[in-house]
Amino acid sequence: MKKIDNIASVNGRLLLHEVYHKLKFERQRNSLSVLLTLWRICTVETEINQYIDEDEVIILHKLGFWRGTLLWIEEIVSRYYFSTINSLVYFGAAVLLVLIGLNNFTDKVDSSVVVYGLAFEASMLLLMFFIMLFTPNDDIFLLKNYEKEDDLQKELLEEIGEISRDFALTSAQLEKSISFFETIIDKQNSLLEIISKISQTNIEAVNPNPKMIEIMQETNISIAKFNENLKTINSTLEEVKSYEIQAIVKKEIELFFTDRFSNNSHNK
Q1: Do residues 121 and 96 lie in contact, with contact meaning Cβ atoms separated by under 8 Å?
Q2: Most exposed among 29, 50, 157, 181, judged by the fewest C-beta atoms under 10 Å?
Q3: Nearest to 118 by CA among 107, 139, 103
Q4: Gap between the terminal Cα atoms of the chain
Q5: What value does the mean pLDDT take over residues 98-121?
Q6: Is residue 2 helix, strand or coil?
Q7: What is the pTM of this model?
Q8: pLDDT of 268 higher than 60
């Protein structure tokens, strides 16, 4: 339930204009019916739920006949029917000029008709005076626009705050992702270095460099020389062994014959 202190308050005036638009444009009521309904709302009525499509609205305090009528002139008649009354004033002035002209140049128009025309024009001018006297200011609409602008600014600030928070979270996640990718890149570089070393080792194993080939050739030559030296040493050793064997055999033979000779001499 929405409660309004009185219809002359800012919220009450805004509600009054809302009721006018509902009756005039959505429900397509005629101008006289709209004026009478709004006059009753301004003066005596406190419940206006039948005129709007919102929750229950209650006006706590009535304005009464005079204050309600002045508010009705200010907010409804002056705002929405000023051009109509202004056109009636010009129409009355035109009729009055015609009546005065006919009265001066012909006898068909009585002076009383001219007086009635003057009274009608005077009443129209008096009505115009009251309408212009109670010309409303646009403070309530400016206030409404300010409230809308404030709401828009609040919504924009909230959206900017949400965007800032999302951006901060995204930046933090991006920094984490960047550090993670940097770690992966470092590990990848290390793996590439290891693979490069392994590849270089394999290349050197399959295709040795010239220095290694020279060293291997020199080693083979040294091994060949060493083999020749071993053969020479072996042949020398064999010769030495044969000489030693011959010497031993000679010595044994000499010992054998020496023993035989010595035995024969003893027997004799």
Answers
A1: yes
A2: 50
A3: 103
A4: 171
A5: 85
A6: strand
A7: 0.51
A8: no
Cα–Cα dist 35/24, whole Å: 10
Residue 66: CA count within 13 A, CB half-sphere: 0
Tell me how far CA of residue 233 lies from CA of 219, 236, 245, in angstroms.
20, 5, 18
CA 58, CA 1: separation in Å to the nearest integer?
Answer: 8
| Domain total of the chain | 2
Q: At what angle do helices 31-43 and 65-72 cross, to 10 degrees?
A: 140
Please tell me the distance from the alpha carbon of residue 226 to that of residue 182, in angstroms, as a whole number.
Answer: 59
Q: Residue 45: what residue type? A: E
**Residue whose entry in the numeric block shows the structure tokens 């005129």:** 51
Structural domain that includes position 41:
1-80
Of 54, 80, 106, which marks where a domain is finished? 80
Domain boundary among 28, 61, 80: 80
Report the largest interatomic distance among the alpha carbons of the chain, rounded to a whole angstrom: 225
Q: How do residues 126-161 score in pLDDT, each as one tens digit? A: 988 988 888 876 666 565 655 556 566 777 888 888
